Amino acid sequence: MNGAPRINAGRLLESLEALGRFGALPGGGTNRLALSDADRAARDWTVDRMRALDMTVRVDAIGNVFASYAGTEQRAPVLTGSHIDTVRTGGLYDGNYGVLAGLEVVATLREAGLRTHRPIEVAFFTNEEGARFQPDMLGSLVAVGGLPLAEALATRGIDGATVGEELQRIGYAGQAPVGAPQVDSFIELHIEQGPVLHQQGVDIGVVEGVQGICWLEFTLEGCSNHAGTTPMALRRDAGLVAARITAFAHELALRYGGRQLATVGAVELRPNLVNVIAQRAVMTVDLRNTDGAALARAEAEMLGFATRCAAEHGVVLGHRRLARFDPVAFDPALVELVAQEAQELGLSTLRLPSGAGHDAQMLARVCPSAMIFVPSVDGLSHNPGEHTEAHHLVQGAQVLLQVITRLANRAG
Amino acid sequence: MNGAPRINAGRLLESLEALGRFGALPGGGTNRLALSDADRAARDWTVDRMRALDMTVRVDAIGNVFASYAGTEQRAPVLTGSHIDTVRTGGLYDGNYGVLAGLEVVATLREAGLRTHRPIEVAFFTNEEGARFQPDMLGSLVAVGGLPLAEALATRGIDGATVGEELQRIGYAGQAPVGAPQVDSFIELHIEQGPVLHQQGVDIGVVEGVQGICWLEFTLEGCSNHAGTTPMALRRDAGLVAARITAFAHELALRYGGRQLATVGAVELRPNLVNVIAQRAVMTVDLRNTDGAALARAEAEMLGFATRCAAEHGVVLGHRRLARFDPVAFDPALVELVAQEAQELGLSTLRLPSGAGHDAQMLARVCPSAMIFVPSVDGLSHNPGEHTEAHHLVQGAQVLLQVITRLANRAG
C-alpha cells in the first residue's frame, strides 16, 4: 500500500483541539458526560463535520451516530469509530481520537478522489465511559443486540435522568434500528491508556483482544472497639481483614503472572478514627486477565481467601460482583492485517491486550473486529493530563487508513 | 472494713440517670463536649449536689472543680473523681461514674455521721475527653503543672473558641491556683471501656498503670493509574503499601505479645475508585504497650517497615507522630490496697493496665495514685450503648468507699 494517500496531520490535530473545546475544563482536559449539553454540542459539531464530507448520517434508537462514505459497491460497510463522551476529568484523546481519525481517513480518500469497494462508515457510540449511565459501552452493547433497547432507555444516570429522556432532550433519539447491524468488519483506533507502548518505545500496539474483567465488592462487618482497651485476641477488625485481602490480591497477581492484574482501588472504613477498631470496611477488587479460565480461578481464590480471612477474624463477609466480562479475542486475520500495515509503514509494533473496555469488544460479537493502539505518555488517561505525541497520533491514523482501505477493497 | 457503711445503690443509679439528662441524645447516650452549654448545665447540677452535701467547692483557673468533705484533721486530702465531659456520642458512665460514686461515698459517710482523719475531696476535671479541645486530659494536666495555664487557656477547639473564652462564658474560670496541688493520694473509679473484665466474668479491675501510646500518621504518595492497563511491575500503589503496613502492624502486635496493641483505625485512599490505582493514602497506626521500651521498639519497627515497604513499591513516605505518651505505673501500695478491699468484699479481681488515658495518670505525677475498674458490657464505650450492670456499679462504688476511708484514716 505504498501508494496510499497520506492523511493530513495538521487537520487531524486541529480537529482534536476543536472537539476538545466542548466541555473544556479550566486547566485543560474535558468534562463531557454522555448526553449532557456539552456532549450535545460535541455531537452537533461532529455531525456537521461528517456532512461536510458528504457522508450520509443516521442516528439509531440509542443515539449512536453512523456516517457513511459510499463505496463503489452496495455491500456491508467497513466500520470504524469510537466515542466522544468523556469522564468528568477526561482528556482530549480517549475515544475522540478514534472518531476524528476515522473522519480524517474519509477526508483524505475524498481529497484524493478515491472510493473503496465497500462503503466506509465512521461511528460514535453513546455512553462508552459509563461515567453517567451504567453500564459502560452502552451504545455499542445495544447496537449489537446485547441489551434490550427499552432497558437501555430506562437506565437512570447518576443525576436521576434516564437515557431515553436525555436522548430526546438533546435531539439524538434516532430512528435507525438497533440489534442486528450489517457490518463487514470493525476497526477501532484508540490511545493505549496504559504505559506499555510508551515505556517500550513502540509506535503501534496491535491489540489482540480485551482482558476479562471481574469487579468484586466486599463488605466486612466487624465490631467497633477502643484501640487501647481491646486485646488483640478479642478484636473483630474489619479494617485488618480489608488490608489482608488487599495484600492477598497483590500476591495473587504476582503468583499468577502473565496478564493477571489485581487492584484494590477503593476502601472505606467506619468509623475511620485513629483509636477505634474499624467496625465496617467496604472495598473493591478489580481483577483482569486475558485468560478467561485464569480469571475465573482468580475470582474463586479471592472469594475463598476473603471468606477464610473474615472468618478467622470474626468478621462477617458480604460480597457482590459489580461487573464481570469474559475476555474478548479479536479476529486473528484482522489483528494480523493491523500488524502488517504498521510494519509496511516502518513502524514498530507490539501485540498486547487492551486493559480497558472498548466498543470494539461489543462489535466483535457480530463481525471481525480489531483495534490499533498508539502510545499514551506515562500511561496517563481519564485525566486532563492525558497526552499522545503528535507523530504517534498521525502514525496511528495512517495505519487506520491503510487497514480500512485494505478491508474495504478486499475480494469476497 | 466489715463495719463500713454501705453505699445507697438507688441514689447512685438515680444520680447517673440524672446527670445523663444533660446533653442527652435522642436514642440514648449523651453529647456533652467540654465547656459547652450542656457541660455548663451538668457542672451546675453537680456543684449543687456537692453543696447539698455541705462540701466546700472551689474552682481552679482551668475550670477543674474540687469539693471538700472536711476531715477531723487539717491535712492533705484524699482525692477522688474523674470528669463529666463526654465525646459527641458518649454514654452515661465514662467519667460521670467516678465523680458521682465519689459523691455517693461522701453522702454515705455523712449519713452515717462518719468523718475520716484526712479530708476527702471529689473533683471533676476539665476536658478529659479531648473531643473539643486538644490535648485530652487537659484539666488534670494543667492541675499537676504539666502544661502552662496560659497555653491551655489559649487552646482553640474544633469550633474555633478558646478554652479561656469558654470558661469565662460558662462561669467556670475559677480563682484557685493550678500547678502544685497538695494531695495525699488519688483514686479514680472508672468503667473499663474494654471487654476484658466482662469476658472473664471478673467484678473489679485492679489497674496497675496506663499503657504508653504512640500514634503515627503515614502519608503515602504513589501514582494514580488505570487498573486495567498498568502492569503490576509498573505500579506505584499507595493503597497496597497502606494495606501491607496495616498487616505488618497486626503481625507486630502478635509477635511482641504481652500488652502490645496495634491498630490501624483510619485509612483514606485517593481517588478511591474501583478501577484506579490509589495515588495517595493517609493512614494512622495506634501502638500501645505498658512496657515503654517495647513501645519504643515497636514504633521504630513500624517506621522501618513502612520506609522499606514504600521504597519497594516506589511510593514516597511521609510520617509524623500524632501523639506519644510513656506508660504510667500506679503506686504499688495503692494498687495492692484496691485489690485487698475488693477481695475483702468477696469480689473477684483482675490486675490489668488501662488501655485508655485517664486523669489518674496526670495525678500520678504528684501523688500516689491508682484506679478501680468495673466491667463494661461487651467492652463498649464512647458509644451511646455503653453499659455497666447496676450491681457492678454498686460494687465499684463500695470498693471506692472502702479504699478512700482506709487512705483517709491511715496513720502517718
TrEMBL record, chains A, B:
* Residues that, per the record, bind Zn(2+) 1: 83, 94, 190
| Cofactor detail note | Binds 2 Zn(2+) ions per subunit.
- Superkingdom is Bacteria
For this UniProt record, give its keywords in alphabetical order, as a comma-separated list: Hydrolase, Metal-binding, Zinc
A molecular function (GO) term? hydrolase activity, acting on carbon-nitrogen (but not peptide) bonds, in linear amidines
Q: Which cofactor does it need?
A: Zn(2+)
Q: Which InterPro entries match?
A: Amidase_Cbmase, Bact_exopeptidase_dim_dom, Peptidase_M20
Pfam families in UniProt: Peptidase_M20
Annotated positions binding Zn(2+) 2: 94, 129, 382
Task: Give the family, as the similarity comment puts it.
Answer: Belongs to the peptidase M20 family.
The protein's name: Zn-dependent hydrolase
Which organism encodes this protein? Answer: Malikia spinosa
User: Top-down, what is the taxonomic lineage of the species of origin?
Assistant: Bacteria, Pseudomonadati, Pseudomonadota, Betaproteobacteria, Burkholderiales
